[in-house]
Structure formats: C-alpha cells, structure tokens
Amino acid sequence: MPSERPSRSCGVENIRRAESLNGNPLFFKALADLVQSHLKSNKTCSRQLTLRCPLCVNPTCGQTKAFFANQKL
Description:
Helix content: 40-55%
Radius of gyration: 21 Å
C-alpha cells in the first residue's frame, strides 16, 4: 500500500485499511433500493435536498438546490 512508506518512516509499525463499502453486496442492494424508491416517487429530488443549512448564506448552494427542485420529469 503506497501510504505505508511515509508512516513507517515516522515509526508506525502496524497500519490497516478498512474494507470499502462499495464491494459489499448488501451495500449494492441498499443503493439499488434507494434508486428504485426515488424513481417510483416521480419527483425530481427529495424534499430534504431543497432544505438549506441553518444560517447558510452561500448563493451557489441556494442556486444548486433551486436548479434541481425546478427540473421537470
């Protein structure tokens, strides 16, 4: 693993990498279920996507949310 070399030079002797979720069949199934549920809803985006963070003043964020909320199917 490429990240082992710098850590060994700092005295780290044991480094392990966590298994990635994207190789897990249960993750694929859950993701497919989410996509299927969204497609069946006939909505362009969830209501949660249109919510702004408290005290958010970022104009790009607001424009992006409005763009997705106003798309037609």
